[in-house]
Amino acid sequence: MSAAQPEVPPLLEVNNIEVVYSDVILVLRGLSLKVPKGEIVALLGANGAGKSTTLKAISGLLKTEDGEVTRGDVTFAGERINGIDPHLIVRRGIFQVMEGRRIVSDMTALENLRLGAFTRRDREVGDDIERVYGYFPRLKERTGLAGYLSGGEQQMLAIGRALMARPKLILMDEPSMGLSPLLVQEVFGIIRKINQDLGVTILLVEQNARMALSVASYGYVMEQGKVVLDGTAAELADNEDVKEFYLGGHGAERKSFRNLKSFKRRKRWL
Amino acid sequence: MDFTLFFPLLLNGLIVGALYGVVAMSFVLIYKASQVVNFAQGEFLLVGAWVCWWLLTTYPIPFWAGFLVTMCFMTLFGIILQVVVLRPLIGEPVISVIMATVGMSIFFQALMKWMFGVFAKPFPPIFATERVQVLGLQVQPVYLLSLVVSLFIMLGFWWFFTYSKHGLAMRATAFDQQVAQSLGVSVPRVFAMSWAISAVVSSVAGVVVGVVNGVSSALSFYGIKVFPAVILGGLDSIIGAVLGGLIVGVLENLAQWVDSEFLNWGNMTQIAPFYALVLILLIKPYGLFGTKNIERV
């Protein structure tokens, strides 16, 4: 795995960052991770572990929520980017697809796509819209307001809008949220496809660990604001703890109610 | 019943209403983009008209040149107001922001009176004054021109918000600032841009009214007439603002006709739009075109 190769510097490197909200709430405590160019890296963890905060620390959107990176740095393509305004980070090639899609519901799908290309100055926006329609043919048929699209279509629109910016790195926050299993399959198929076709690097935050590990090459497991486990997707999928806590497998035998206590104890890796 | 006055008043209502619509649109633009209720909207007309008047009476330049310079000045004026007065107030309570705009309104009214005096001053003659016949009515060409200018501005707004990327960015900012930032939009720049556009567009209306009626502090009444117009139309709807403006304009003039024919109370012109405002708020509290949130179930 190229994550282990020291001679190629990773596209994104998060080094020991600490994030504080409203000057008092410490959310990330020394988180580090690397995202190699051209790969899909999954970031897993329970609710409240700090996954979304990590993405916002990278994209700079933390600023809009009164959060701040107080220690450590975020390096993108060799340059330190923490503290930069979010709209400038987008211009550097990092695009975040926020949790819950967040498409502009009182615009049409087409207008949302054109909005995605806001930072671009070239004249190929029209071609890119056609390319997005190639990935998501059903968006082309939708001419009404984007707010009336189905959840799956909105997710596709959110991903399509990200592609319109031609980013080097897409940060995806829970693309499977609120989608039916069939749609989750479809969306992840497309995520894999755009990674292969366009070479876009993707950092993927997911609750659906099985799905995430199936498309990712490398994964990190977060707990309480730091990384507690990392490895290639195959290693993580084989790990007994990951299996038990995130993949929903039962391990050797079904846990009885009495053993739930040991669940808490065992979940602490550090 | 005497209808000789009815149709001229109706036409007058449409012409004035279109101007109200233009001012209301620029008011809504600021409200939508930066959530500021701008009580100094009328002063944009006033400042713009005085600047244009001053340029034309001081320098021997043609009208269009003075007009262009005024537009450039108002762009800067809007940006500077936003950056100097409004930007430091971001995150402060709504009432503080409103008070700041009320303060700006008083300040610029006083400043204009101090600089240019309290009496109305006519623009140098620009257009032919022979009346033309429209649908059997005698109309001054300036009035027709003002109608054309209003429609032109409305078309411009429509184009800007539907096709230009900065218009889309402005709509996105109005929808959700965090989303706009995640798309690479600089929110402070959108705020400044909305003030600049609003100031320019209002001042166009100011110059048009100035050319027709002369420049005086009465121009800032347009800023007050904007309130019934935008509340009629819904505070955050641009189309609503245009229609609200037209309704207010027509209503004023119809009220004047009704008043002169039947009631003879006097002053119905001023009050009628506000009666309509109260009625509409009773029936449709969000105005005719106020936000309907899309909710998927």
From TrEMBL, chain A:
Transport as a keyword of this entry, yes or no, is yes
InterPro entries xref list: AAA+_ATPase (IPR003593), ABC_transporter-like_ATP-bd (IPR003439), ABC_transporter-like_CS (IPR017871), BCAA_Transport_ATP-bd_LivF (IPR052156), P-loop_NTPase (IPR027417)
Q: Which domain of life is it from?
A: Bacteria
- By its UniProt entry, which Gene3D superfamilies does this protein fall under? P-loop containing nucleotide triphosphate hydrolases (3.40.50.300)
| Keyword Zinc found | no
Q: Which UniProt keywords apply?
A: Amino-acid transport, ATP-binding, Nucleotide-binding, Transport
GO biological-process terms attached to the record: L-amino acid transport
Taken from the record, one Pfam family name reads ABC_tran
- Gene Ontology terms, MF aspect: ATP binding; ATP hydrolysis activity; branched-chain amino acid transmembrane transporter activity
Q: Where is the ABC transporter domain?
A: 12-249
Family annotation (PROSITE patterns) = ABC_TRANSPORTER_1 (PS00211), ABC_TRANSPORTER_2 (PS50893)
Give the family, as the similarity comment puts it.
Answer: Belongs to the ABC transporter superfamily.
Q: What is this protein called?
A: Amino acid/amide ABC transporter ATP-binding protein 2 (HAAT family)
Automatic annotation (TrEMBL), chain B:
One Pfam family here: BPD_transp_2
Where would you find this protein in the cell? Cell membrane
Q: Which UniProt keywords apply?
A: Amino-acid transport, Cell membrane, Membrane, Transmembrane, Transmembrane helix, Transport
Annotated membrane topology = Multi-pass membrane protein
A single GO molecular-function term is: transmembrane transporter activity
Where would you find the membrane-spanning parts of this chain?
7-30, 36-56, 63-85, 97-120, 141-161, 192-215, 227-251, 271-289
CDD domains in alphabetical order? TM_PBP1_LivH_like
One GO cellular component term: plasma membrane
Provide the primary localization: membrane
Protein family according to the UniProt entry: Belongs to the binding-protein-dependent transport system permease family. LivHM subfamily.
Q: What protein does this entry describe?
A: Amino acid/amide ABC transporter membrane protein 1 (HAAT family)
